[in-house]
Amino acid sequence: MLKTIPIEELCSGMYVDSIAAQQGNLKITSRGRVSNEQQINHLKRQGIKALVIDLSKQLPNDEPASEPPLSPVEENIESQPEVSFEDEISVAVALHNKGKTLQKRLLESVSKGFPIDLAIPEEFTQNLVSSIDRNPNALLCMTKIREKDSYLLEHSLNVAILLANFASHVELTEEEVQELALSGFLHDIGKIKIPDAILHKPGRLDEQEMNVMRDHVYYGTKVLQEMGLPKSMIRTIGEHHERLDGYGYPEGARGDEISLFGRMIAIVDTYDAITADRCYKPGMPSQKALQILLQDSPDKYDAELVKKFIKCIGIFPVGSLVKLNNEKIAMVIRQHPVHATKPVVKVFYSVRGSHYVKPSELDLQKSPTVKIEKAVTASEYKLDFNKYFSEAIAI
Ligand SMILES: [Fe+2]
Ligand SMILES: [Fe+2]
């Protein structure tokens, strides 16, 4: 017997037959039983308003499922972005610019000892999460835009974007996604208290300098505590340099002593730091950063979470550059839901002729002869990535 209910009435154990009303384009490719709260939250975030449920297949609340619960979220529902990349990119560009300005203002306030109104970054990260919910690819692309000498501003913004995307991928609740986005945005705020000679040193820090640098975690958590940031976020921020083997800082916490959010932020923070261009060295390709995370898990990073992070951003992440076997350079703009090595890319440069070509979209799943040869960086080919991006992508 079929019945249409609003999403607010959906409970674990109910058997979903189809979607009755929605804002986005989520598709149910086969029917299934809802087995936990996270699936319900995911459906809400995807804009589902009402569903058709099959009452004859509904389990009473206290009866365990005799069959393995079907997972409409992970297995049977194919998620499609709510809005197109083209429509979301202009919002993402504006958000990215606003994020950098806001980060700069926050750092200035901390440096001068002025109070911070946390409602402002909170509202900003809410808008960030909404953009990711509509179409994550737009903001994910923006994480690859790096301005010279803007590492501190861009890094915290990128960690917020990547962490929010990671959090929604592992099916955390709406509130938890928001919490992680804000924690990411504020995680390195204590760095403004570190002397410039150490913070911007064009090279490796010696042991003494490293000890000074480590204090940014203490300064950051202290200031944020005074501003009234909730305890759970202080903990996440305080743990972003902790490592499972106990060789992190500031506490040298080990294994289970580090929270789930602390483990997640550690992965994202390391990934962004490795891929960022610094004044003394160009960033590594995303693939190399993912390899490092894999090599260092389970010793330093949670192996399961690293795997989930790689699954979520893909081995060729959106916004990263790849060299194709036809001697062209392209930017990844969309993951293939199943075939990780066959994303949709935008071709824009010819290696053979050393010149830019008219940007054209190419679906590698549909072109059997063209394949990705390797991940590359803009600096390897002396490409002005930011110029290309503003002319060909952020139109
Ligand atoms: Fe840090
Ligand atoms: Fe960081």
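^ fe (ii) ion complex. Residues 144 and 229 are 29 Å apart (CA to CA). The chain has a mean pLDDT of 86.
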